[in-house]
Design a protein that fits this description.
InterPro entries: Epimerase_deHydtase, NAD(P)-bd_dom_sf
CATH architecture of one domain: 3-Layer(aba) Sandwich
Shape: globular
Oligomer: single chain
Pathway: Bacterial outer membrane biogenesis; LPS O-antigen biosynthesis
Organism: Candidatus Nitrosoglobus terrae
Structural class: alpha/beta
Radius of gyration: 19 Å
Protein name: UDP-glucose 4-epimerase
Largest sheet: 7 strands, parallel
Mean pLDDT: 96
CATH class of one domain: Alpha Beta
Strand order of the largest sheet: 3-2-1-4-5-6-11
Low-confidence stretches: none
Bound molecules: uridine-diphosphate-N-acetylgalactosamine
Number of strands: 13
Distance between the termini: 33 Å
Family: Belongs to the NAD(P)-dependent epimerase/dehydratase family.
Length: 313
């Protein structure tokens, strides 16, 4: 049975990916430093004898090296990151250390320990505020934040390593991922996690701007499946891929759906747009489909219902 390392295992996407890997018959070692992750997200995984968890910071090269010496990994799902765009402005050194240097560390350890593959969490943020939609991978990246620059740098580093070393790399440019376990408790949490929590509690939401901004929301299970597929597929092509649905929905449309489920919740309060907010975001999903033969399966209304059915964290 192959063993995979998942960094950022206690996070929102990490924990779903761990569950998916375990459910599909793999062994998993998960690490997290709990900066944004939560051990509760691993409740299900921790019941499996095929899962081991270690509290470890991905920037701790010695700790990671010991882990690579102790196990023979068939692949690494590298999700551990500073995930907030605003925080990457206020803590640029931490962004560099976590979102660039740690990627390099993980890649070098893979190379030195004959771990053949990395699947890396990149972001649609690398496109910046694009005039042309949908975003296609062939478009010129235009990062607007230290976070986006770090994700793009990591992509370049990994894909360059694949040219000279026995390493394969898949960089997934996640669009707006949503689903259960996404922490709603920060103003920079995913908008759907905040909206779901507020509607469940009967409190009004705040909309930044006129609510006509659109996003390509992808359900977390689709992301976990793609991660697992990229890690375990026999043959892959090292490259960067959008992970998206190519469907966009506006916040006002989301609110209309939510009001159908919770008709008594007070209407949203509209305030000024956030500085640097992107107006429209939508990704072209064809490269992923053509290479891996997979596409997002969960339509938005179904995913939203699943999110609402899950207990709010
Ligand atoms: C997402 C990612 C970010 C980066 C970026 C790339 C998340 C959480 N963030 O940022 O990491 O990859 O895409 O483009 O996935 N909003 C409200 N009310 C709220 C919260 C948000 O109106 O209470 C608005 C917000 O101003 C924005 C939209 O909802 O227009 C989506 O916000 P978000 O924070 O979920 O994600 P986004 O697209 O800014």
């Amino acid at each position: 049975m192959d063993t995979y390392l998942v960094t950022g295992a206690a996070g929102f996407i990490g924990s779903h990916s761990v569950d998916y890997l375990l459910a599909t018959g793999h062994k998993v070692i998960g690490i997290d430093n709990f900066y944004t992750g939560n051990i509760k997200n691993l409740d299900q995984a921790l019941r499996s004898s095929e899962f081991q968890f270690l509290e470890l910071d991905v920037t701790d090269e010695h700790g990671l090296a010991a882990l690579f010496s102790a196990h023979k990994f068939a692949g690494v799902l590298h999700l551990a990151a500073l995930v907030s765009v605003p925080e990457s402005f206020s803590k640029p050194a931490l962004n560099f250390k976590t979102n660039i240097a740690a990627t390099d560390t993980v890649a070098r350890l893979c190379i030195d320990n004959q771990c053949p593959r990395i699947v890396f969490a990149s972001s649609a943020a690398v496109y910046g505020n694009s005039e042309i939609l949908p975003n296609v991978e062939t478009a010129r990246p235009n990062p607007q934040s230290p976070y986006a620059a770090a994700k793009l740098s990591s992509e370049i580093l990994l894909l360059t390593y694949t040219k000279s070393y026995p390493l394969e790399a898949v960089c997934f440019r996640y669009f707006n991922v949503y689903g259960p376990r996404q922490d709603p408790n920060s103003p920079y949490s995913g908008v759907l996690s905040i909206f779901a929590k507020n509607f469940q509690e009967g409190s009004p939401v705040t909309v930044y701007g006129d609510g006509e901004q659109t996003r390509d929301f992808i359900y977390v299970q689709d992301v976990a499946r793609a991660n697992c597929n990229a890690l375990t597929a026999k043959r892959i092509s090292s490259n960067y891929y959008n992970l998206c649905t190519n469907q966009a929905i506006s916040l006002n449309q989301v609110l209309t759906l939510l009001h159908q489920y919770y008709p008594n919740v007070t209407p949203a309060q509209y305030i000024a747009s956030r500085v640097g907010d992107i107006r429209h975001s939508r990704g072209d999903a064809s490269r992923l489909q053509e290479t891996f033969g997979i596409s997002a399966q969960v339509p938005f209304d179904k995913g939203l219902k699943k999110l609402l059915a899950a207990k709010s964290p």
